[in-house]
Design brief:
The protein folds into two domains: 401 residues, Metallo-dependent phosphatases (Purple Acid Phosphatase, chain A, domain 2, 4-Layer Sandwich); 195 residues, 5'-nucleotidase,  domain 2 (Alpha-Beta Complex), CATH 3.90.780. 29% of the residues lie in helices and 18% in strands. It is built from 20 helices and 24 strands. Helix 3 links the parallel strand 1 and strand 2. Helix 3 packs parallel to helix 10, helix 13 crosses helix 20 and helix 15 packs across helix 19. The structure holds 2-acetamido-2-deoxy-beta-D-glucopyranose (5 copies). InterPro entries: 5'-Nucleotdase_C_sf, 5_nucleotidase/apyrase, Metallo-depent_PP-like, Nucleosidase_C, Pesterase_C1039, YHR202W_N.
């Protein structure tokens, strides 16, 4: 019998202020919750491929997460990434213990974006109230804010009141302020910097810097990186003595080249002032695994897409009179690679290299797959049952209950095959945008105009994830197409003009929000408007670089039998960063927008005029200008709702699943 308490707790937690939650989330209480679930989420797939070897441990080590976007239940349908936040909490506890035993430091870092993209975060009001609370069960050392925390006023205040305050001085927002509505003044959302000494005596100065983001609601203020480095407090902070290591974390691309990324600016400012102190950077936002070398004592790590990666960074060689730990812990591999500024990939040194001499700074980096096999392998030597901790099991159980309560696991259809964003070219069977066209044509219908030909436009940025074969749950509609954008239209547009719109849009720049809207919409409307500012997979710098990489043709047969498709990372240290080797998933470019046609003349002739339908996100800034270029003269006055405003772009796929994918129901053979 399951006790009622957990469920009551969940509701209490959503409806009550934070203090009421202490009773059910406090560390004293989770032990009393009896759960049916022991590991992962029920039905989540198990990984089959083990990590390639034990982790290197240095004098100081980091575990890094980024862009979790609410995926704390794990990737239930992907075997490489099926662990949940409870499994991770257990992993963290073991790794901390191991660090203590090895007499080295271990710091946990997160670089923001906790919302938007998963039902676990997006079915609450405000969005993220449950996942933020759950997130705080893990004792991070350094965290920072992402752009998704700042689009919507209620979410910004939630992150401020309920999240930032939990972590106190560990939540770093060097260039982000929030409006104190009692005084009318802007104040720091978290702390500008943290100067602290690690357990083993390293003196660290840390900053948390957001990229030059402009899509925020008016209650937050972001200082551009270039301006921040001129501020008196920053100039003073980087002069602080003594500092053994600077740590700069940021919801920020880690690789230089993007026009709004600010880590290079901050790195240079520190380097100019402190040529001899190592600087370590952690970034995110681009949803990639990446590692870059800035100079011999400065590197940067980015750790993945949506909570499917734990980034591991080990370094050794920091000379500090106060460090009391071990430079080269025994019984485990140690970092062996220099950061080489000439762009060469340093070869991994042979084990005999570790002779204790003065080799300068040595590094190791690894991208860990988010699954229990990996966690158990590194934490407790592959003994899966030993991985669980009380807290971990409690978190796992709570997620299961919450998913039930929010009906996230409700199956509405059976997805007959996997549809992906970029692993199959647009235009071919199995590409999700082709599926979107079919689904839009079948579901976006205004009954009074059903027989009028229509063209329906969406931006490809509105789709955020692949749709994986198997049960289509409510969760999938949040995962795949999370943004609540309404369908608008202009009636009876001459076909000659309408047909030009898509090519014009696709020849233009990638679509993101241009102007900050006034906060008069409901929060969900606003949430949808700004969100696509994240770069899409195939246009990010890293993805572009990957596309240019020659495809590996020499793969050992034995390996390819064992490998499952997944991340195949190339970074400044080469191609051995992925902790579990994967076979490569190809990536193809996607257009800016796609278009569905419906109710066209059945004889194949061209219609006179069409209803031009589009989601509101792209209407004013993109569709109208494109239509003008095609010779039409329309204004927002001509734009009206095609569907009821409540029918949004996160519903059409679900509606299509209910309509077209009933074969194999009710459970599609998998129990999620
Ligand atoms: C995964 O492994 C666990 C433990 O071995 C097992 O109980 C569970 O049924 C497996 N899950 C699936 C989906 O096969
Ligand atoms: C903080 O979280 C509680 C629920 O845990 C929620 O009711 C409250 O609205 C949140 N505070 C803010 C400012 O969003
Ligand atoms: C005012 O600020 C507090 C946090 O300081 C926040 O909880 C509250 O939601 C804000 N009120 C409004 C109307 O934004
Ligand atoms: C819709 O019509 C346009 C032009 O009329 C055509 O180029 C396009 O291929 C059609 N799209 C689909 C998905 O049928
Ligand atoms: C369908 O289109 C008409 C305009 O012709 C509009 O008045 C009506 O509101 C639309 N229906 C819905 C459900 O939005």
């Amino acid at each position: 019998m399951l006790s009622l308490l957990p469920l009551l707790c969940i509701f209490a937690c959503i409806l009550q202020p934070l203090y009421a939650c202490d009773s059910c989330y406090g560390p004293s209480d989770y032990t009393s919750h009896k759960r049916l679930v022991r590991r992962m989420q029920p039905g989540a797939l198990n990984a089959t491929t083990k990590p390639r070897g034990p982790l290197e441990w240095g004098q100081i080590n980091f575990m890094h997460t980024t862009d979790t976007h609410g995926w704390l239940a794990g990737h239930l349908k992907e075997e490489n990434y099926g662990a949940d936040w409870g499994d991770y909490a257990s992993f963290v506890k073991h790794m901390r213990k191991k660090a203590d035993e090895l007499e080295v430091d271990l710091l946990l870092v997160d670089t923001g974006d906790l919302h938007d993209g998963n039902g676990l975060s997006d079915t609450t009001t405000p969005n993220g109230v449950y996942t933020d609370e759950l997130f705080t069960k893990v004792d991070y050392d350094l965290l920072t804010v992402g752009n998704h925390e700042l689009y919507v006023t209620e979410i910004a205040y939630e992150a401020f009141a309920n999240f930032s305050n939990v972590y106190g001085e560990r939540y770093l927002t060097s260039n982000v302020q929030i409006l104190n509505n009692a005084t009318g003044e802007f104040e720091d959302m978290g702390h500008r910097f943290r100067y602290f000494t690690t357990k083993h005596g390293l003196r660290i100065m840390a900053f948390g810097v957001l990229f030059d983001f402009t899509g925020n609601s008016e209650v937050s203020k972001i200082t551009k990186g270039a301006d921040m480095i001129k501020e008196e407090w920053f100039i003073e902070a980087i002069k602080t003595e003594p500092v053994d290591l600077f740590v700069v974390i940021g919801h920020n691309p880690v690789r230089p080249g993007g026009n709004d990324g600010t880590l290079p600016i901050v790195q240079k400012a520190i380097r100019d002032a402190r040529p001899d102190v190592p600087i370590q950077l952690f970034g995110g936002h681009y949803h990639v695994r990446d590692f870059i070398v800035w100079d011999e004592t400065s590197t940067g790590l980015a750790s993945g897409q949506y909570c499917e990666t734990v980034g591991w960074l080990a370094m050794t060689g920091i000379k500090s009179p106060t460090f009391k730990g071990s430079m080269k812990p025994k019984g485990v591999p140690n970092p062996t690679r220099r950061a080489m500024v000439d762009g060469k990939i340093p070869p991994p040194a042979p084990p005999s290299y570790n002779t204790g001499g003065d080799e300068g700074m040595l590094y190791a980096r690894r991208y860990l797959d988010w699954n229990r096999l990996t966690f158990a392998y590194h934490a407790v030597g592959s003994q899966d049952p030993k991985l669980d901790t009380k807290l971990g099991k409690w978190i796992t159980g709570d997620i299961t209950e919450f998913r039930k309560a929010q009906e996230l696991a409700t199956v509405v259809g059976c997805v007959p095959q996997t549809y992906c964003e970029s692993c199959i070219p647009y235009g071919e069977e199995g590409n999700i945008f082709n599926l979107a066209e079919v689904a839009l044509a079948a579901t976006v219908i205004n009954e009074t105009r059903a027989d009028k030909p229509r063209m329906i436009l969406i931006n490809t940025g509105s789709i955020r994830f692949d749709l994986v074969k198997g049960p289509f749950t409510l969760d999938d509609s949040y995962i795949v197409s999370p943004f609540p954008n309404s369908f608008m239209f202009i009636p009876d547009v001459p076909y000659a003009q309408a047909k030009e719109v898509l090519p014009i849009l696709n020849a233009g720049p990638y679509q993101k929000k241009r102007s900050v809207s006034v906060d008069t919409h409901s929060s969900s409307m606003l949430a949808g408007r700004g969100i696509c500012a994240d770069p899409p997979l195939a246009t990010s710098m890293k993805a572009k670089r990957d596309l240019l990489m020659p495809r590996s043709i020499t793969r050992q047969p034995r390996e390819s039998l064992d490998m499952t498709p997944g991340h195949t990372t190339t970074d400044d240290f080469g191609t051995d960063g992925d902790d579990t080797p994967h076979s490569e998933i190809p990536r193809f470019e996607v257009p800016n927008d796609v278009q569905a046609n419906a109710s066209f003349p059945t004889d194949g002739s061209e219609p006179e005029a069409v209803d031009l339908v589009f989601i509101d996100f792209i209407g004013e800034d993109y569709v109208l200008p494109a239509l003008a270029e095609a010779g039409g003269s329309y204004t927002m006055e001509d734009v009206q709702y095609y569907m009821p405003p409540e029918f949004t772009s996160n519903q059409y796929l679900q509606e299509y699943a209910e309509m077209a994918w009933q074969e194999g129901m009710p459970n599609c053979g998998v129990d999620i």
